[in-house]
Amino acid sequence: MEGETCYTDKGVGKCVSIYKCLSTVIDIRNKQYPKICSFKGKEPVVCCMDCKLVNDTRNAIVDNQGGIFFKTGQKARDKCLEYLTKLPYSCETRGLERFWDTQGNCYFFETRSHTVAIAGNNVEMYRYPHMALLGFGEDAASALWLCGGSLISETFILTAAHCISSDYLGPIRFAALGLLKRSDPPERWQVFNISRVIPHPDFAPPSKYHDIALLEISKPVTFSKEVFPACLDVGGQPQSRASATGWGKLGRNRPLADNLQEVNLYEFSAAECSHNFPPHRLLKRGYMHNIQMCYGGDTTTEARDTCEGDSGGPLQVRSCISACLRTIIGVTSHGRGCGLAGSAGVYTRVTRYVPWTDRRTDGQTDMTKL
């Protein structure tokens, strides 16, 4: 009966619903099945030795290192947790880990910590597997690859709305994944046709507001070390530092980068951003902190910025749930010039648009077919 005392090889437990005992998630995963006390209808009542019970283990997700997370019902976060279980390599995470309490003779769970040191600006293979290079043209072989984007699911790429078409080149047509360098051999380029373009409904070019869009590719990607989605920022917590990545120009009057570039940036205050981006023809209300953010170099003598060709790419931080995932906090939108000392670039604030991305990636209709 539920609530009765029971016994296992570890000691004395209590008979509870299997969905209240978090240890059963680990035990079943390890093919160590819990002792059954009875059944409540079709629901097993098991002998549980957890110090505290949980609400419902059916909301638990176990990553490939055994860390446990709980779904919250927030689609973007829950999908990120789901992808965490599909990582094609081992990686420490911040999931719950089980420990034995020798005084209480029961199991307790604590968040495990991770430490991964990453330094420098040279991007190496597998470091940003969500990066997409976007192409314009009639065929992939002759396409011009002029914007960036971020893979956020098996079929969707996040980018800037101003990247979805060009007055001279027409609509965006292709997305390339899995590459590190523009000069990589063709077999490393995983090129997909873009089947649907979904700009934010409030984007009204040439205005710079709501500069965000989704691209649906023609078939699902296969996750690997080279191709893996990033998470979307759902918390909106301030991030004093972040990194931007892209294959844009290496500086003013310089060519497009061959190797994927990373630049580490610092957050500017709302007042600094408003000063840098006052009202003008393309920003009639000036910088808007609730839907935009700006990042740049940390001193007035340091030129550190994204550049032409980086548009649509991510501004990102390391995910709070895993050292091997990135969380996109911004989408590269525009700036005052490329790499001006003490200046900043403007990024669309992703957390503001997560409800919209959730709806659109559910397959609802308000979309533009190519």
Tell me about this structure.
By secondary structure, the protein is mainly β. It has three domains: 4-115, no CATH class; 131-227, Thrombin, subunit H; 231-353, Thrombin, subunit H, CATH 2.40.10. The protein is 8% helix and 34% strand. The protein has helices at 23-29, 75-84, 270-276, 354-360; strands at 5-8, 11-17, 36-40, 43-48, 60-62, 68-70, 96-101, 106-111, 131-136, 144-151, 156-159, 165-166, 170-177, 190-199, 213-217, 231-232, 241-246, 261-267, 292-296, 314-318, 326-335, 344-349, 368-369. It has a six-stranded antiparallel β-barrel. The protein has a six-stranded antiparallel β-barrel with strand order 17-18-19-22-21-20. The chain has a four-stranded antiparallel β-sheet with strand order 1-2-4-3, with no helix packed on it. A hairpin with a 2-residue loop joins β3 (36-40) and β4 (43-48). The longest helix has 10 residues, at 75-84. The chain is elongated, with a radius of gyration of 24 Å. Residues 117-362 form the Peptidase S1 domain. It holds the Pfam family Trypsin.
